């Protein structure tokens, strides 16, 4: 079994939800849809206050080359278009607030399509118009990944079903419940990329999903491969290394080694887009953690306030200390439970007691170096950044850091390494080091 | 924002952390040394206990004093001062004066550790620095204050060897006998025979169990190995340093000239005697003063092994573990610079 270097084995914490079928969250009465839910330029609003919208209607047009449209997740009335802090970055972003009419009327453009002659270009166009972004968390516009530059021939598509983040089971449940659809979507992605080598990669802690996928790919020459359960197995570069033994060059992209990685959730969204022209307005979210009464996997409309999800899961179990958008290793702590679910929200974790131990001085145990999947020396980078030696940090490959959190997880001195690295990267960008 | 909303903590990821802490690591090493500590009390009696305790208590006090002087947070219970105290005590002959561990701790904690910034910033192992300071300042005490262990003699030699040789042999440690052999014996006593006796299975057994003369905590290879293996299995220490250290010593004594009574016995004699086990498992592995990467640690272990053998065979001291580790501590920043990990997606620099 091929593998990547480094990594950690945090407690998985998936028991609470991995056997629970995905339930549908009741329609929210109000959604807050930020127009920047993806990497790249925000979309531009094309509706105004008072407009009636259907579920799936375009409310924001792409705002640049690397950008996607945004759609209404529910039918109803646009009650406000305003600047609100982005749930993850805190920067002000145009947000469209829609009040539900309770009918969930679909936009008339959403209907079964005639799929007889699909060209790669058509698929890419449909994927773009459906506002699909990588659903694994990074939320990079999918159409852009499907259009690699001509000088970088792509020979392999990897569908990422690793879900290596602890606690999250959204992809796991999707692979079990929408197996056929994921395979169908994978077929469209392979067609768009014109590749025949397709790998579906799943960690070996999900044998039932592996089994289901293996049965579903019968008759197609997709390969379902089982990878060792090790965080961050699902990180793009580590996944490519483990599946193909290819190393994406420092500063490069997967296309540099002839490879494109898409999440299983993305494959499912692509299937809906190609088959029904259904845009991306809902996704699976795992709601779990010791701070929530009944952990669940939910189908959630984008823009639904986090509080709705928690209420549907029996409410808070005591006083919550931290609410995280995403997994415990890379997720972003939210400042309020009124913030909305985004396209990239794979989980909402509620923790009651988060041990926040004080930082101690580094004792040079080098555990951070041993676990860094990128081969960096976090302890050295930490010293450089705290001493404002940004150029040195950059020359020691700070920008290769994928912020997976392995270093900070193992650090016995509990040094906030990822925090420092995010700060260091921001300073390098700000000061143009 | 409406009322009755929870106050949430917003910090950067990751939001979970491993249960391993600095304090747990330090205390783990302390616990791993307990079998050897018990052994030292068994072999050398109450003195071993008193000297080690004096060393630990004074290490705690001087560490706290240093932290106070430099306005740092006082961390009596992080385990690091206790560990240094135990290691310093283990590195002293059992019959030294009571103030020796106190003086050693003062140097270790104040000069070697706190002057350089406290835990994590010292460039040499504090316990070994303390020992080196004592050897340089009171050499006679540090090289002659041996005690005969319970159930054995200082030199570890079998009774038959003691009959034919001088009193000097009875007050020399095994490594000292190896170093000075010919000088210690009376006319008519055959030195070759002495080396054979020194490398006999009887002596080797004494070195293994610990009933020979030596510093308080270094004599029992068995008890040190037990703790060392526990530390390796629980991943508190990296196996690379002790393994490369011990293998280098073994390989070098095999090929270099020496008073070999037999290759196997001679190699085992070198591995089991002196402070090698204590140094290889508990002091060369000190995080702060050893290299960061796997490759660097192997180089470090090999360097310690080479220096130890060179000092033992040709140096001015019978034992070279302390100085070899100290010298490699000093070389550590250089080793780190030469052995960075390979960054993913880059070729190793030529």
UniProtKB/TrEMBL annotation, chain A:
UniProt keywords, alphabetically: 4Fe-4S, Cell membrane, Electron transport, Iron, Iron-sulfur, Membrane, Metal-binding, Repeat, Translocase, Transport
Gene Ontology molecular function terms on file: 4 iron, 4 sulfur cluster binding; electron transfer activity; metal ion binding
One Pfam short name: Fer4_7
Residues that coordinate or bind [4Fe-4S] cluster 2: 372, 401, 404, 407
Broad EC category: translocase
SUPFAM superfamilies cross-referenced by the UniProt entry: alpha-helical ferredoxin (SSF46548), Nqo1 FMN-binding domain-like (SSF142019)
Localisation per UniProt entry: Cell membrane
The protein's name: Ion-translocating oxidoreductase complex subunit C
Native source species: candidate division WOR-3 bacterium
TrEMBL record, chain B:
Keywords: Cell membrane, Electron transport, Flavoprotein, FMN, Membrane, Phosphoprotein, Translocase, Transmembrane, Transmembrane helix, Transport
Membrane-spanning intervals of the chain: 21-38, 44-62, 74-92, 207-233, 239-256, 263-284, 296-315
GO cellular component, one term: plasma membrane
Location of the protein in the cell: Cell membrane
EC annotation from Swiss-Prot or TrEMBL: 7.-.-.-
Pfam families: NQR2_RnfD_RnfE
GO biological process, one term: electron transport chain
Bilayer topology term: Multi-pass membrane protein
Keyword Transmembrane listed: yes
FMN phosphoryl threonine: modified positions: 173
Main location group: membrane
Cofactor(s) recorded in Swiss-Prot or TrEMBL: FMN
Purpose: Part of a membrane-bound complex that couples electron transfer with translocation of ions across the membrane.
HAMAP family, sorted: RsxD_RnfD
Family: Belongs to the NqrB/RnfD family.
PANTHER family: ELECTRON TRANSPORT COMPLEX PROTEIN RNFD (PTHR30578), ION-TRANSLOCATING OXIDOREDUCTASE COMPLEX SUBUNIT D (PTHR30578:SF0)
NCBIfam families to which the protein is assigned, alphabetical: rnfD
Self-association state and partner proteins as the record states: The complex is composed of six subunits: RnfA, RnfB, RnfC, RnfD, RnfE and RnfG.
Protein name, as recorded: Ion-translocating oxidoreductase complex subunit D
Gene of this entry: rnfD
């Amino acid at each position: 079994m091929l593998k990547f270097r480094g990594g950690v084995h945090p407690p998985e914490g998936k028991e609470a939800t991995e056997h629970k079928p995905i339930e549908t969250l009741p329609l929210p009465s109000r959604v807050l849809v930020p127009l920047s839910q993806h990497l790249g330029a925000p979309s531009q609003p094309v509706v105004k206050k008072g407009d009636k919208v259907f579920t799936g209607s375009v409310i924001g047009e792409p705002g640049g080359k690397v950008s996607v449209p945004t759609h209404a997740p529910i039918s109803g009335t646009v009650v406000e278009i305003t600047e609100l802090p982005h749930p993850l970055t805190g920067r002000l972003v145009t947000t469209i607030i829609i009040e539900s009419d309770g009918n969930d009327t679909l936009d008339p453009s959403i209907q079964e399509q005639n799929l007889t002659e699909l060209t790669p270009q058509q698929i890419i166009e449909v994927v773009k118009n459906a506002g699909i972004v990588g659903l694994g968390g990074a939320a990079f516009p999918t159409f852009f990944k499907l259009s690699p530059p001509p000088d970088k021939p792509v020979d392999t598509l990897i569908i990422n079903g690793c879900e290596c983040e602890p606690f999250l089971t959204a992809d796991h449940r999707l692979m079990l419940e929408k197996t056929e659809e994921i395979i169908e979507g994978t077929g469209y992605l392979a067609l768009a990329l014109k590749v025949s080598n397709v790998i579906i990669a799943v960690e070996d802690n999900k044998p039932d999903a592996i089994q289901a996928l293996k049965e579903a790919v019968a008759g197609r020459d997709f390969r379902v491969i089982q990878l060792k359960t090790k965080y961050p197995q699902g990180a793009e570069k580590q996944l490519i290394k483990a599946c193909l033994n290819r190393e994406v060059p420092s500063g490069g992209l997967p296309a540099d080694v002839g490879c494109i990685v898409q999440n299983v959730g993305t494959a499912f969204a692509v299937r809906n887009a190609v088959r029904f022209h259904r845009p991306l307005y809902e996704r699976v979210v795992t709601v779990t953690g010791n701070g929530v009464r009944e952990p669940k996997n939910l189908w959630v409309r984008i823009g639904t306030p986090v509080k709705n999800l928690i209420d549907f899961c029996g409410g808070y179990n005591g006083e919550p200390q931290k609410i995280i958008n995403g997994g415990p290793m890379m997720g972003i702590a939210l400042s309020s439970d009124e913030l909305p679910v985004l396209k990239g929200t794979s989980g909402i974790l509620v923790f009651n007691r988060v041990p926040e131990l004080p930082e101690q001085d580094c004792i040079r145990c080098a555990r951070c170096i041993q676990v860094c999947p990128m081969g960096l020396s976090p302890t050295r980078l930490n010293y450089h950044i705290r001493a404002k030696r940004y150029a040195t940090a950059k020359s020691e490959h700070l920008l290769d850091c994928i912020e997976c959190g392995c270093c900070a997880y193992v650090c016995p001195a509990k040094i906030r390494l990822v925090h420092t690295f995010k700060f260091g990267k921001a300073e390098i960008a700000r000061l143009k080091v | 924002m409406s009322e009755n909303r929870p106050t949430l903590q917003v910090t950067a990821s990751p939001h979970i952390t491993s249960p391993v802490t600095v304090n747990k690591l330090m205390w783990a090493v302390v616990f791993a040394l307990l079998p050897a500590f018990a052994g030292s009390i068994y072999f050398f009696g109450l003195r071993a206990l008193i000297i080690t305790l004096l060393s630990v208590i004074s290490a705690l006090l001087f560490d706290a004093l240093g932290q106070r002087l430099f306005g740092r947070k006082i961390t009596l219970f992080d385990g690091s001062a206790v560990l240094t105290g135990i290691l310093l005590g283990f590195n002293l002959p059992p019959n030294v004066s009571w103030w020796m561990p106190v003086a050693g701790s003062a140097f270790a904690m104040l000069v070697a550790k706190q002057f350089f910034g406290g835990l994590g910033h010292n460039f040499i192992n504090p316990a070994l620095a303390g020992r080196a300071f004592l050897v340089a300042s009171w050499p006679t005490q540090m090289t002659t204050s041996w005690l005969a262990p319970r159930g054995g003699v200082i030199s570890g030699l079998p009774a038959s060897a003691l009959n034919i040789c001088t009193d000097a042999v009875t007050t020399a440690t095994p490594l000292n006998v190896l170093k000075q052999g010919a000088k210690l014996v009376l006319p008519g006593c055959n030195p070759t025979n002495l080396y054979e006796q020194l490398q006999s299975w009887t002596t080797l057994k004494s070195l293994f169990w610990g009933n020979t003369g030596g510093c308080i905590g270094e004599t029992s290879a068995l008890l040190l190995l037990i703790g060392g293996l526990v530390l390796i299995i629980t991943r508190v220490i990296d196996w690379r340093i002790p393994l490369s250290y011990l293998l280098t010593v073994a390989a070098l004594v095999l090929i270099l000239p020496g008073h070999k009574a037999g290759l196997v016995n001679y190699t085992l004699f070198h591995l089991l005697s002196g402070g090698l086990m204590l140094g290889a498992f508990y002091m060369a592995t000190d995080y702060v003063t050893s290299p960061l990467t796997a490759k660097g640690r192997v180089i470090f272990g090999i360097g310690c092994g080479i220096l130890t053998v060179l000092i033992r065979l040709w140096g001015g001291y019978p034992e070279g573990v302390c100085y070899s580790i100290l010298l490699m501590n000093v070389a550590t920043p250089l080793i780190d610079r030469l052995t960075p990990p390979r960054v993913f997606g880059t070729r190793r620099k030529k």
